Structure prediction request, 436 residues.
Amino acid sequence: MHQMSDMQSCIDECLRCYQTCLGMAMNHCLEQGGKHVEPGHMRIMMACAEICRTSAHFMLIGTPHHKHTCRECAEICEECARSCEQVGDMQDCVDQCRRCAESCRRMAA
Amino acid sequence: MHQMSDMQSCIDECLRCYQTCLGMAMNHCLEQGGKHVEPGHMRIMMACAEICRTSAHFMLIGTPHHKHTCRECAEICEECARSCEQVGDMQDCVDQCRRCAESCRRMAA
Amino acid sequence: MHQMSDMQSCIDECLRCYQTCLGMAMNHCLEQGGKHVEPGHMRIMMACAEICRTSAHFMLIGTPHHKHTCRECAEICEECARSCEQVGDMQDCVDQCRRCAESCRRMAA
Amino acid sequence: MHQMSDMQSCIDECLRCYQTCLGMAMNHCLEQGGKHVEPGHMRIMMACAEICRTSAHFMLIGTPHHKHTCRECAEICEECARSCEQVGDMQDCVDQCRRCAESCRRMAA
Prediction:
């Protein structure tokens, strides 16, 4: 059983991760160019931003399907963190994705 | 292996189902009232609209994670179709949810 | 000229208002029924949630068009606050909509 | 006065333009690189995808504020069409943005 505060904290992490992924993709990555705009990296950044936004949306709607979107969110966040590590110079995004993944795994359990 | 035309046809079904669920929830259901605005029904309608939008988004981004969002989309569409059958007077939404579920299951396979 | 901290604070208010409007519509309003699920009220709640989400998105993308979405966001937030006052028992949403409107007006200036 | 079929046709154009902008940005532009991933171009492509999605959402909700989002959508579509012309090799996006802008202008009138 999750308490309301667990869910609010997961919504907060998802919306923070959404902000970090979208903001860094559209500013840091596009300005840096090179490996930062490699298709695979940009796609996982945008997919991560979208699933974080959707998982927060599902928790706010109050549907039990949030467990499934949170599970998928955790997987995509981990993959995004690994992509950011490989590209380098993206530690804020690595850290935020890992925090969000951890929070989403607890919510999906 | 999916062909491009399979994916485009799934994107089309998802965006049609998004339109049907959001449009009927915000117009037909709210105008009818009664069982149509019961929390469980409205929540599954809004969750269905959102996952359809997100699954289309993932296919357009071109990320392989679309298989997972499509699988979840198929499950939510089926649940939404059942809820619409129980509420009654929502046959368009029942039919569109079933078509989208079928298309998403093929995409998730 | 806006400083980065002004924009981050507007993104924060928009995402808080998105949470409040969507969360209260899908939980408080649907559970309460009656005036809370009147079509005009539910529509402005959902429109407010969406424009808040979009305005935050535009600021994160870093496009100068955020000024236009923030101006529209301020207008919709004010209308949503008035609708919540008329329905009653929605003071949290009234307050958050007013705070977001104020922040968006500054951003649109 | 708009007829329902005008609005459905504008929703269709917006969702087609959303698909074209997001799909071409995340696939064609990222694969091509060079001018195609210049920050200004990618930002207007993503802003265009988002405002098209939001304008369709507003029309589906049935809120009169769709006139304002459609007006903004028309402006962003025109700017996106010009950016695509300058980058070159993006005629599908130029054409779809112009069609959507024309439809949104009628809706905003």
Observations:
- The domain at 4-108 of chain C is CATH 1.20.1270.360 (Substrate Binding Domain Of Dnak; Chain:A; Domain 2).
